[in-house]
């Protein structure tokens, strides 16, 4: 029998059992697909990173002796979609059996399961990437049911024996979040490591994008700074363990504009390599824990626990939420948000310094770290009632690591509360004072962070109170935010009226901020 095995762009897992043996009757296919450029407009670095990684993966497979078909945009231009391409390849190569790894995106699973191709059998196999086996997602999650990340995370720690001391968490504590809320002081800035960047020849890919009129946005330098091979991903992981992990937890939520490395800080920048499966979560966690064990004084438990929680906790958690709630998750809009994104989401030109910086680096690097995504850009979208479809499309397009299964529960769920609280137990809404507490953005801003009203008042302040006021029916009884409503009620009546009025004025012309 002759077998064709499809490898999607985010399935670049060289340790997959498929590759254990070289078999001349198996052809592997990787293809630059036009359909993947059309469902949303992507940042140019994201397209280039996927294409380059696929190219390098194909080269590595060939070197290991496998037969590989690498099809570029020229080769696939005549096919309307992936099923049409696969049907033709099966015919052309007299294929008996088509095999694919289960896609992580609902849209692609649907497409693969409804294939109509001239072969005797079609097999779906696992990607062998995540900690939690796909079939066990249902043991931890149910549709339309809120699951708390912390509960799930503790089960994962115990189940996979990560940072455990028999049945107890190492150090007697599951969570060191309280130690992870430091602001960067002036004296901390000089120590921030310069991000490790990679270089590659991207010109042929850019020419192909141009030749095929692929629409994209954002900028790209001569090279691409993201890791696109397993060797580079491992290099980035080693760099992270050496230079960033010692302060990862401490400054995880911090933001600054005053360092050349402000865009990356102590973050790993491994999300693209992880999501493309170039590197696997077990390798990342194992190496980080090894570094902690080797240098416990430098990398204390709060730092390593903070990092493990992101990957073993949050990353596996959002995948569970996604799968048990799709396809209807993508239609949720619990707060009935309906506004359109202002133009500065595409050019960074706003007087709000926090947004200018966070949007600016998203457009420049296809990257923002978590708190910028959640508490600056996402918070702004939440407070101003941006339609979750528009928010999803922007996040899915702009970030180097954005693939729907991880992007959507973070954006629609955690950040926009559009799922009605399946991910977050309360909305991540904050006024300017939170941004001021965690960053140095406000000092250089056109707006005054302490003011609620007046032309120069920080927009986040009045917008915050307006958000709380207009959603009182939903949140008024939530014990986790009762205090907020007590403060709103205690506010001087004239000031409250003026604050809400100022928000209405802002909402009527968000483009002018
Ligand atoms: P680090 O800070 O170094 O963290 C290490 C790793 O932990 C990351 O590489 C990532 O794999 C994982 N991780 C951390 N937080 C999360 C999380 N909330 N959900 C899932 N994994 C997490 N992450 C994506 O991978 N793709 C997305 O499209 C995406 N969209 C987001 C949208 C919003 C609104 C928010 C609030 C967060 C989003 N995240 C997304 C999560 C997080 O912001 C990124 O994973 C992180 O910023 C990537 O940078 P890093 O690799 O330097 O992460
Ligand atoms: Fe952002 Fe307000 Fe601070 Fe300006 S003052 S940086 S708008 S939080």
UniProtKB/TrEMBL annotation:
InterPro entries given for it? Crypto/Photolyase_FAD-like_sf, PhrB-like, Rossmann-like_a/b/a_fold, UV-DNA_repair_photolyase
A Pfam family for this UniProt protein?
Answer: DPRP
- Keyword field: Lyase
Gene3D superfamilies from the entry? 1.25.40.80, Deoxyribodipyrimidine photolyase-related, DNA Cyclobutane Dipyrimidine Photolyase, subunit A, domain 3, HUPs
**SUPFAM superfamilies on file:** Cryptochrome/photolyase FAD-binding domain
What start and end residues bound the annotated signal peptide?
none
An example of a GO molecular function for this protein is:
lyase activity
Report the PANTHER family cross-referenced here: SLR1343 PROTEIN (PTHR38657)
Under which name does UniProt file this protein?
A: Deoxyribodipyrimidine photolyase-related protein
The species this protein was found in? Arenicella xantha
């Amino acid at each position: 029998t002759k077998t064709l095995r499809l490898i999607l762009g985010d399935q670049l897992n060289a340790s997959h059992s498929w590759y254990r043996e070289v078999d001349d009757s198996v052809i592997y296919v990787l293809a630059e697909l036009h359909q993947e450029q059309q469902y949303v407009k992507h940042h140019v670095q994201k397209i280039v990173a996927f294409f380059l990684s696929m190219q390098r993966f194909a080269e590595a497979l060939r070197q290991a002796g496998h037969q590989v078909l690498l099809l570029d945009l020229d080769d696939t231009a005549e096919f309307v979609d992936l099923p049409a391409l696969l049907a033709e390849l099966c015919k052309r190569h007299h294929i008996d059996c088509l095999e694919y790894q289960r896609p992580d995106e609902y849209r692609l699973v649907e497409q693969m399961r409804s294939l109509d191709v001239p072969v005797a059998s079609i097999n779906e196999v696992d990607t062998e990437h995540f900690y939690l086996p796909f079939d066990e997602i249902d043991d931890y999650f149910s549709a339309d049911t809120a699951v708390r990340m912390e509960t799930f995370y503790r089960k994962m720690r115990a189940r996979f024996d990560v940072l455990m001391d028999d049945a107890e968490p190492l150090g007697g504590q599951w969570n060191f979040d309280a130690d992870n809320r430091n602001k960067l002081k002036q004296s901390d800035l000089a120590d921030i490591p310069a991000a490790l960047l990679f270089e590659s020849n991207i010109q042929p890919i850019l020419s192909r994008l141009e030749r095929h009129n692929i629409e994209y946005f954002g900028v790209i330098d001569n090279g691409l700074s993201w890791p696109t091979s397993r060797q580079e991903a491992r290099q980035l992981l080693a760099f992270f363990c050496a230079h960033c992990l010692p302060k990862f937890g401490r400054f995880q939520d911090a933001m600054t504009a005053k360092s050349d490395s402000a865009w990356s800080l102590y973050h790993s920048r491994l999300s693209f390599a992880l999501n493309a499966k170039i590197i696997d979560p077990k390798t990342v966690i194992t190496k980080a824990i090894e570094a902690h064990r080797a240098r416990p004084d430098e990398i204390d438990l709060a730092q390593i626990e903070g990092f493990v929680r992101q990957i073993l906790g949050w990353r596996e958690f959002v995948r569970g939420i996604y799968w048990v709630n799709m396809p209807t998750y993508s239609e949720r809009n619990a707060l009935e948000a309906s506004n359109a994104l202002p133009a500065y989401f595409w050019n960074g030109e706003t007087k709000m310094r926090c947004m200018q910086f966070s949007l600016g680096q998203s457009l420049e690097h296809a990257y923002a770290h978590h708190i910028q995504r959640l508490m600056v850009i996402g918070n702004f979208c939440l407070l101003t009632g941006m339609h979750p479809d528009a928010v999803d499309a922007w996040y899915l397009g702009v970030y180097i690591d954005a693939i729907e299964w991880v992007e959507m529960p973070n954006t629609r769920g955690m950040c926009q509360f559009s799922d009605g609280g399946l991910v977050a137990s309360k909305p991540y809404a904050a006024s300017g004072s939170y941004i001021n507490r965690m960053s140095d953005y406000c000092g250089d801003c056109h707006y005054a962070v302490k003011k609620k009203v007046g032309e120069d008042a920080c927009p986040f302040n009045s917008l915050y109170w307006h958000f709380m006021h207009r959603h009182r029916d939903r949140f008024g009884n939530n014990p986790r935010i009762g205090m907020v409503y007590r403060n709103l009620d205690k506010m001087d009546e004239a000031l409250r009226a003026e604050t809400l009025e100022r928000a209405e004025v802002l909402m009527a012309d968000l483009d002018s901020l």
